[in-house]
Fold:
Amino acid sequence: MMDHPAVSDLARQRGLKEPPPALFQAIEQFNRHKFFECHETLEKIWSEEPGEVRRLYQGILQLGVGFYHALQRKNYQGATALLQRGMNYLRPFTPIYFGLDLAGLLIATNRALEQLLLLGPTQIERFEADYIPQINFIESELNIAYLQKKAQV
Structure:
């Protein structure tokens, strides 16, 4: 995949390194509820990252696995624990990092977690995919880059 100049420029302005191209793929997978694929993509990025930003990747990964446990496995304990852990990993990066609306993601994930807690372990089968948030970009340059990379997929 080719790097998009707007992504590079914005990252440099904020003193951040450029997001890895695979992050766009992982976000697309998350947003399509392809949580296993998202896990694999993020695990590769995370394992190659020596810095603190690896917690960002781990946080998104944990959310995806948490939603997988809620939807597919109907595993209440696993889902609630992973969602809470994922949110904890993401908090230091809020409100925005790499152009990702992490504050919005945390708010929406918390709503989904509240729904799970209301349902409880005996009603988890009533948890619906509609409760799962999308990961969105804030900066228009990054949104354009994301949409361009999405069109290449």
User: Anything to note?
Assistant: The helical segments are 5-13, 21-31, 35-48, 54-73, 76-90, 102-119, 140-152. The chain has one domain: 5-9+20-152. Residues 71 and 129 are 7 Å apart (CA to CA).
